[in-house]
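look at this stuff:

>
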Amino acid sequence: MSEHLSTATVPGVVPYAGAAVGDYLQILKPRVMSLVVFTAFVGLVLAPGHLHPVLAAVAVLCIAVGAGASGAINMWYDRDIDAVMRRTANRPLPAGRMMPGEALGFGIVLAVGSVAVMGLAVNWVAAELLALTIAFYVFVYTMWLKRRTPQNIVIGGAAGALPPLVGWAAVTGDVGWGGIALFAIIFFWTPPHFWALSLYRAGEYEAAGIPMLPVVAGARETKRQMLIYTLMLWPAALMPWLLGIAGPVYGACAGVLSLVFTATAIRVWADDSERSARQMFAFSLLYLFLIFTVLLVERVAGGRW
């Protein structure tokens, strides 16, 4: 009899059978992907010019796949800290349902494929921006900034802000002021959005060794920075109207939504409970969705109501 037993013959040991389809979908971070795809689609619709519907669908699909690739590689790299944090401990890698090599290989294939198809089918400017988005999220945010500086979200937020610029470039073949305006909205929205989450998850971030702002500078300084960024978001949110790519209805809606977002930041500043931070985090998602929805509806309805 062989001295080496397979895991299938060792009592109490369940052999690894490979990751399920649901696990592969989970490492793509579908909730994050949905917001990325939506903002990129709005950028594509708002861009001047025309793109064949089939090519537009290909562009959106490439952006979705690229976002999923970023998520997969992020989960591969962060599997150690994901195991420590309660909200991420059940992800496929820390839970042992997927091997690290599977996630990394899957992410690389998707990243290369999405960029190649975007370049060959749509244009290479959009492909280069998509490649920049993936590389920035993986190398700059995940591997460099996230574990080293409390400014990880501020600088790394550029990766999440690039998709509408990719959608814009898919139509125009260049980077225009309208695309930059959409980029600016997400860029200034990202810090207060994530810091609201980190306020009531500070203990988990500290245990994982991630220097989020509440861990490094404390809750009070985090709340001050959140308020500052909601105020900086005002001109960014109004920029599409000021540039003429959106009408007065959008301008009014952006103003009201920004006012409410700032009010949630003031409430967080004045309230030491977790409830206000949770409410601000939830509203931040609604804020971004409504801003881009109004832009989309206004354009589809004929430009300016």
